[in-house]
């Protein structure tokens, strides 16, 4: 039997999902249950039905803090309870209690009834895998009873290289996908952060180094099992529910719970050995200009990826421009491809052949949880890289402030040739023509700095954006942008909203960067 680790004071009943989702209280007729009612349901109805490995965490439990920790403390929502599910039967158990009325699923998938429970009881719920969702829109949950469903134990990744596919379960994170792919002598497109939940990352676009080899993450999706707002499980693919298949590839957080994703898998390159390098340059506007000019002149070719970081690393804590480089191939070829960077005479360099499982390790420090990290994103064309000079001094001044020294600026430069071979209208992802994403992240501990950090971040974003089109990578959005900046405007946004009306008319799924 599952365990309850403390005396229950404040509690809620769970529902499951991979992405962050929303239940609209104004649209649902039943009032949220009281804390006492939820307490009773958990202790008398749910707990006895959970498997041995499942557990429930309350705020007084030691595990509660660990299982509610987020990449940014600004997105912590003060949940009333966490249910750590260990199997799909655990998820089923949430709704298989006498007081509930489960809906019949089209495919008898267990998640269907779970969503029905949450919606019928008007309980807001937020499910998580990697807990990296950084949008301020999540703060709308704060101050109301809600549930966190921790799916991390449901992390299976099956790779079938002969068929060129991989099947990923709801709670898997990037590192687990890399490990499974490497063990099968395969490559699977992921992002560049080991601890991010892989399915929500792919649904939002799937940005990362390997897109120069295989294309965007959304273009890797072959099919999905998705729980709708009606509590029905539908298969979504080119053959089934084609309208929804278009929508989930770029805006999937808005339409339901993806319980399982089937994606493309490829034969590994170079025996699964890649090359990674970290080069550090003294931080100045002049050096930044040399670096950005080099990127533009060099170009980002097949099998290349450049991740630029402005940071103040120890021991001197002075400004530096750091390049984390990736190359899919042997060291000699990598060093030749990146020779223009070495010609700039970096003051620090760490370069080595790297197994596929460790290609993201150089970014682990940036991906670590903790601190307050509101984030501000701008999409640029490759030709606009030089505009970064406009915001260099803003970052230098902000990061020199007491308590803000860990603040960074990230610039992701990938090869988009493969991604642009796909028709722009074939998926809901809006920004195939955008080749660079810049993200400033003020990092600090004290909540009292929130207003100043927001002023810095919005000034940075507005300066870099200028009068040009507002383009934001959905997974990097601050949460204060117009939906058109994330999903495109005009007919594309109208098509998404029509889909929303069809598949989720009451806005059940809308805590994370909603389209409406």
Report on the architecture of this protein:
The chain is an alpha+beta fold and 516 residues long. It folds into 3 domains: 148 residues, Uridine Diphospho-n-acetylenolpyruvylglucosamine Reductase, domain 2; 113 residues, Uridine Diphospho-n-acetylenolpyruvylglucosamine Reductase, domain 3 (2-Layer Sandwich); 210 residues, Vanillyl-alcohol Oxidase, Chain A, domain 3, CATH 3.40.462. It is 28% helix and 20% strand. It is built from 16 helices and 19 strands. Strands 16-13-15-14-18-19-17 form a 7-stranded antiparallel beta sheet. Helix 3 runs parallel beside helix 4 and helix 13 packs antiparallel against helix 14. The chain starts with a strand and ends in a 13-residue tail after the last helix. 55% of the residues are buried. It holds the Pfam family FAD_binding_4. Belongs to the oxygen-dependent FAD-linked oxidoreductase family. One of its GO terms (molecular function) is FAD binding. Keywords: FAD, Flavoprotein, Oxidoreductase, Signal.
As a whole number of angstroms, the C-alpha radius of gyration is 23 Å
- Secondary structure tally: strands: 19
Reading side by side through the largest sheet, how are the strands ordered? 16-13-15-14-18-19-17
Our count of domains comes out at: 3
CATH architecture call of the largest domain? 3-Layer(aba) Sandwich
CATH topology of the largest domain: Vanillyl-alcohol Oxidase, Chain A, domain 3
């Amino acid at each position: 039997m599952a365990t309850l680790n403390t005396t229950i004071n404040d509690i809620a009943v769970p529902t499951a999902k991979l992405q962050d989702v929303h239940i609209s209280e104004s649209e649902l007729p039943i009032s949220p249950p009281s804390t006492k009612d939820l307490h009773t349901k958990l202790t008398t109805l749910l707990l006895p039905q959970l498997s041995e490995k499942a557990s429930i965490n309350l705020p007084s439990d030691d595990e509660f803090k660990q299982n509610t920790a987020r990449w940014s403390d600004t997105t912590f929502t003060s949940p009333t309870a966490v249910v750590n599910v260990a199997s799909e039967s655990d998820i089923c158990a949430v709704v298989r209690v006498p007081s509930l009325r489960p809906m019949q699923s089209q495919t008898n998938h267990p998640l269907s009834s779970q969503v029905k429970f949450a919606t019928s009881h008007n309980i807001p719920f937020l499910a998580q895998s990697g807990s990296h969702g950084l949008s301020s829109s999540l703060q709308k949950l704060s101050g109301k009873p809600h549930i966190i469903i921790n799916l991390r134990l449901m992390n299976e990744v099956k790779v079938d290289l002969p068929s060129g596919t991989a099947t990923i379960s709801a709670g898997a994170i990037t590192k687990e996908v890399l490990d499974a792919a490497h063990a099968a002598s395969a490559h699977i497109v992921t992002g560049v952060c080991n601890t991010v939940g892989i399915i929500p990352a792919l649904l939002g676009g799937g940005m990362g180094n390997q897109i120069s080899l295989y294309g965007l993450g959304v273009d890797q999706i072959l099919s999905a099992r998705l729980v709708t707002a009606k509590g029905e499980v539908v298969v979504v693919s080119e053959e089934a529910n084609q309208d929804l298949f278009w929508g989930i590839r770029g805006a999937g957080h808005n339409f339901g719970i993806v319980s399982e994703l089937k994606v493309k898998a490829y034969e590994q390159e170079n025996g699964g050995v890649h090359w990674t390098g970290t080069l550090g340059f003294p931080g100045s506007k002049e050096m930044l200009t040399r670096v950005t000019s080099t990127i533009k002149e060099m170009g980002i070719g097949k099998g290349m990826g450049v991740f630029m970081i402005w940071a103040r690393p120890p021991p001197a804590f002075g400004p530096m421009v750091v390049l984390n480089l990736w190359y899919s191939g042997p060291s000699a070829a990598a060093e030749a491809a990146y020779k223009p960077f070495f010609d700039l005479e970096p003051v620090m360099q760490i370069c080595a052949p790297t197994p596929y499982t460790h290609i993201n390790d150089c970014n682990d420090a940036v991906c670590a949880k903790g601190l307050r990290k509101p984030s501000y994103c701008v999409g640029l064309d490759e030709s606009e890289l030089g505009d970064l000079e406009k915001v260099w001094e803003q970052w230098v001044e902000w990061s020199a402030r007491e308590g803000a020294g860990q603040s960074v600026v990230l610039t992701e430069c990938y090869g988009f040739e493969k991604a642009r071979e796909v028709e722009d209208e074939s998926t809901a992802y809006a920004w195939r023509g955008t080749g660079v994403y810049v993200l400033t992240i003020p990092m600090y501990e004290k909540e009292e700095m929130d207003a100043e950090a927001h002023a810095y971040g919005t000034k940075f974003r507005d300066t870099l954006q200028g009068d040009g089109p507002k383009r934001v990578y959905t997974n990097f959005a601050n949460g204060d942008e117009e939906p058109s900046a994330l999903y495109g405007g005009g007919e594309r946004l109208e098509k998404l909203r029509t889909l929303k009306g069809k598949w989720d008319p009451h806005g059940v799924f809308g805590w994370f960067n909603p389209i409406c």
